[in-house]
Amino acid sequence: MSGAVASVDGTPEPGDLVAVVAAEGEVLGYAHVAPASAIRARIVEWGKDSAGEEGLLAAVRTALVRRENLPGLVETDAIRLVNSEGDGLPGLVVDRYAGILVVRPTTAGMQRRASEIGEVLRASGEAALLRPDAIALRREGVPVEERSLFGEVPDVPVSIRERDRVYRVDVRHGQKTGFYLDQRDARDLVSDLAKGRRVLDLFSYTGGFSVAAAVGGAASLVAVDSSKEALARGAEHLAPVAEEIRADLVNADAFRWLRGGSEPFDLIVIDPPPLARRRADVSKASRGYKDLLMHGMRRATPGGDILAFSCSHHVGPDLFRKIAFGAALDAGRRIQVMATLGAPVDHPVSLDHPEGEYLSGLWLRRAD
Asked: Across all residues in the chain, what is the average pLDDT?
């Protein structure tokens, strides 16, 4: 799209729908604009003809229909209904927790149209909370407004079911929309691998992987996180299976805790928050990931498994595998790649937006 400019009469306001025109005058598509943002235009329609505002609402309806028959979503009542660019709706995420929807706009265009989007979503849930990404919207120069779009959104956490696991999701205050639905498949894998094993859950947050390990029959569990509040919620999640597993919840910096110990584990989950939020962070982030992986490999028992993740598209699958290779060399361990891991089917990625594939994971096994 070299040489393309946004064509609009007068000065565009944040969130306006404008034509995107090539230097030769050809209309390439239509975009929501944000003049104050580093990303000034996000395409919502390709081609010279526009369906206008109805086109966006039609795309929301299409995303909802596509979720109806997706495999792998029949044993959970918590799914992603709209996945931003992956559904042709840049700047819009909608997650459903039981009957409660969380609508998370990250652009001025989607924030401005939240009420209309909410009307389309009415048939998909009992209530919907508009919970914008405050940091992203401030960059786009628009005010942040959190409110109910329809129905009564509870002030208490919402119980969700995921296979044979139960979690309580704080839709008002939890990270992102309240829970990490993108790790559902990985939690299934942890359940399958955990039976009779000593499990370490680093950056455990509210215990998503910890509960998966406990339900899977782990012999013991150590969960490490720097947030006391997150660990407290993790303890609540583990309470129904507390008598079946020896669990130790540790409030500590995971980097320091991992470097400072020697206790071996049969299954290790390493799922840190984004270490590379910007391209300029990649070098420092790579060192951080390598440090975690190297010490994790040293703590893994022979035949032990490590599930490691990067949740930044700046550290994608190729780079992450190279980091793992370097970590194995420095750890002095022979490591097998059992599988690559990523987000589940309700998190589609558009081929013309590879940045949407932000979650890179590896299932590693110590082979020496």
From this structure: 93
Taking a C-beta distance cutoff of 8 angstroms, is the pair 214, 269 a contact?
Answer: no
> Which residue carries 């459903």 as its tokens?
96
In sequence order, what are the beta bridge partners of 82?
A: 94
pLDDT at residue 223 greater than cutoff 50:
yes
Cα–Cα distance between 236 and 60 in angstroms, integer? 35
Give the C-alpha distances (Å, rounded to integers) separating 77 from 43, 237, 311. 31, 17, 24
Tokens linked to 165: 């696991």
Residue type, 298: R
Active site residues: 311
- Confidence bin at 107 (pLDDT 50/70/90): very high
Same domain, 284 and 329: yes
Measure the CA–CA gap between 48 and 46, rounded to whole angstroms: 7
Q: Which of 64-73, 111-120, 210-219 has the lowest mean pLDDT?
A: 64-73
Domain that holds residue 95: 55-156
Beta carbons within 10 angstroms of residue 170's beta carbon: 17
Q: Do 271 and 124 belong together in one domain?
A: no
